[in-house]
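Hi all, posting the design record for the shared folder.

TITLE: backbone redesign
STEP: 1 of 1
STRUCTURE INPUT:
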């Protein structure tokens, strides 16, 4: 099958505007006869459901949470990017586009990425109108800060709660449509299959998580906005309920999974503390605006800190290695996430990790506290402040900017980050891979759309910080309301889709058989035990660094683990009741297949790019070595139990020059 990205003709900066002006439309009197299913109620899902309902479509929205406000978008901390140029520091739509293409190591589509940059400014206006309490400067203008991989300040934020505030805005818009009857909201429902009729997505099979009942729901089109698959690693910054099941069921029904090996390791997470830890906690990238990353230069200082004979504050400035500032002077501590993560791993691999496990580096705010303290003292008319005055005012400024993040760190670790540097280490955070979609955000299955982190389209091999919220809201508010019309305009004479067709009944039967098969195993090993083992395999052999030998070994181990899973897993309780262990069991079964596909994709891509780092392909100084002539393509995988088939979409760069990424 030839992959058709459906990118419009014309100059890059005119594609979206011209396309909107010429695409097929659905008249208002026809919209009310068309139904759309939206799965997921995070930023992408809630904004899409609200926007489609506002246009007049009948929408059914589904979440496995008890409220849309529980979606994982709420956990995003640092901010959302937009090319407003409020700081007058040289930002523009083109610069945001270029930074995103470069940050993704030249492995994303130009047209999709430019559209994202183009609509970014509209997102901020939309959210301000909804009442999102973005931080503001003294004069009342919205404030900005910097994130990794850029040299301008374009990140809008609400302290360390940006995702929560944006989700409340989207939830408010969704709630209005629920109240008006345009959206029918199904909470505590999990999608277990996609129904395809005559090549078109026409509905879903869901499990009511309270009663255990299997239900059939139909519509003219299905929109998936279900997030990423980072929990395949078990330990990640994702909420424990985040999963790949809806997207993976789509793959089982013929949709292609694109670039699955592109997973992002976030550099600033609280390090692992024990073998039975169930998730990891992110420390916002915004902290790298003011925090300096370092390790001791001397091994004896490392040992003294590990044994608690020395505090990090005891290490003099000349004995500290601020390795990001040393290696990347142009960007310093604000290099992209993949670069910062690899640098931290390399420092720890050399034996300079500062915690008991040797897997941590410092994120230090003392310099920022002193800098801000002097400025604040001066504003108070104190021109020769003593050290205690400087510290008092400096802490107040840092608390105002990052207070909830510092509080969260102290509650988890017991250390006061105002007095002693944070300890951080990279952890799985985001997945750039996802369902393959065209310019309309439609998968290769007609009528099946994917938004936000669920698709692959905008970030290439590495996502820049604060761009996930941007993509989710761009897709939901400003892209899918237009592009879904390209499909639905051909459906205006299609009557409501019945949910008792042979295709629905067959899909329901297969879901029931899958559940029965799991429940009948009656083994002795818990679901979490298998999931933890899968995560160890994935982190060890397909984590921050990969090589051919390890990937081959990892695939064999996953296959063996999967065989054991279907023979030994134990699921307590009954299928026809509230049963979280059954929920997990279904999800972990999908994670195992997804994990194998991630390894296959990493094996195929014999280069290093962004978050995909093959040890065989690196420069002399340890940076990623791309091979553009062979691998400038999107990997779109068609699933097959024995050997998945790879389809390639060639990436064409007409507006940026393909060159080696440098942040030095």
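Okay, here is what came back for every position:
SEQUENCE:
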């Amino acid at each position: 099958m030839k992959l058709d990205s459906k990118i419009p003709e014309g100059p890059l900066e005119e594609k979206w505007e011209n396309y909107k002006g010429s695409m097929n439309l659905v008249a208002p009197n026809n919209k009310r006869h068309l139904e759309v299913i939206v799965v997921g109620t995070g930023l992408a899902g809630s904004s899409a459901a609200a926007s489609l309902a506002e246009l007049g479509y009948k929408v059914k929205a589904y979440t496995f949470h008890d409220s849309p406000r529980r979606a994982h978008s709420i956990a995003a901390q640092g901010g959302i990017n937009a090319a407003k140029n409020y700081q007058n520091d040289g930002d523009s739509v083109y610069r945001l586009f270029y930074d995103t293409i470069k940050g993704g190591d030249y492995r994303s589509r130009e047209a999709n990425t430019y559209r994202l940059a183009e609509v970014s400014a509209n997102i901020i206006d939309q959210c301000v109108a909804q009442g999102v309490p973005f931080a503001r400067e003294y004069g009342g203008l919205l404030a900005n800060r910097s994130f990794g991989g850029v040299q301008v300040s374009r990140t809008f934020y609400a302290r360390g709660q940006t995702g929560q505030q944006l989700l409340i805005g989207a939830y408010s818009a969704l709630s209005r449509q629920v109240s008006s009857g345009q959206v029918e909201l199904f909470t505590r429902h999990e999608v277990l299959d996609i129904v395809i009729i005559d090549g078109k997505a026409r509905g879903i099979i869901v499990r009511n998580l309270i009663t255990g009942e299997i239900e059939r729901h139909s519509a003219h089109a299905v929109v998936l906005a279900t997030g990423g698959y980072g929990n395949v690693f078990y330990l990640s910054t994702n909420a424990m309920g985040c999963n790949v099941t809806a997207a993976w069921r789509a793959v089982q029904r013929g949709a292609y999974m694109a670039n699955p090996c592109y997973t992002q390791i976030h550099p600033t997470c609280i390090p692992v503390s024990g073998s039975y830890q169930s998730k990891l906690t992110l420390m916002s990238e915004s902290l790298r605006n003011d925090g300096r990353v370092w390790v001791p230069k001397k091994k004896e200082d490392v040992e003294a800190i590990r044994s608690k004979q020395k505090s990090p504050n005891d290490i003099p400035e000349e004995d500290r290695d601020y390795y990001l500032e040393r290696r990347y002077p142009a960007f310093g501590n604000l290099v992209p996430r993949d670069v910062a993560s690899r640098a931290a791993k390399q420092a720890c691999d050399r034996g300079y990790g500062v915690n008991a496990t040797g897997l941590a580096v410092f994120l230090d705010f003392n310099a920022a506290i002193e800098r801000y303290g002097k400025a604040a003292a001066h504003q108070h008319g104190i021109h020769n402040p003593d050290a205690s005055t400087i510290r008092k005012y400096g802490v107040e400024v840092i608390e105002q900017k990052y207070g909830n993040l510092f509080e969260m760190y102290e509650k988890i670790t017991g250390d006061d980050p105002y007095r002693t540097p944070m300890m951080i280490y990279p952890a799985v955070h985001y997945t750039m891979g996802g369902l393959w979609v065209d310019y309309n955000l439609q998968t290769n299955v007609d009528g099946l759309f994917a938004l936000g982190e669920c698709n692959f389209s905008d970030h290439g091999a590495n996502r820049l910080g604060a761009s996930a919220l941007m993509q989710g809201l761009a897709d939901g508010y400003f892209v899918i309301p237009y592009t879904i019309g390209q499909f639905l305009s051909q459906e205006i004479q299609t009557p409501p889709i019945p949910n008792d067709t042979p295709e629905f009944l067959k899909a329901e039967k297969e879901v029931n058989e899958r559940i029965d098969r799991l429940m009948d195993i009656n083994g002795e090993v818990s679901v979490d035990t298998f999931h933890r083992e899968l995560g160890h395999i994935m982190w060890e052999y397909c984590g921050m660094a990969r090589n051919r030998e390890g990937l081959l070994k990892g695939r064999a181990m996953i296959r063996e683990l999967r065989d054991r899973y279907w023979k030994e897993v134990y699921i307590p309780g009954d299928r026809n009741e509230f049963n979280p262990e059954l929920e997990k069991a279904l999800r972990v079964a999908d994670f195992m297949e997804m994990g194998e596909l991630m390894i296959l994709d990493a094996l195929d891509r014999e280069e290093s790019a962004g978050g995909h780092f093959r040890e065989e392909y690196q420069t002399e100084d340890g940076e990623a070595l791309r091979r553009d002539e062979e691998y400038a393509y999107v990997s779109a995988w068609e699933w097959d139990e024995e050997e998945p088939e790879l389809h390639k979409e060639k990436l064409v760069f007409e507006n940026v020059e393909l060159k080696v990424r440098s942040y030095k």
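COMMENT: The radius of gyration is 25 Å.
Let me know if anyone wants the other runs.
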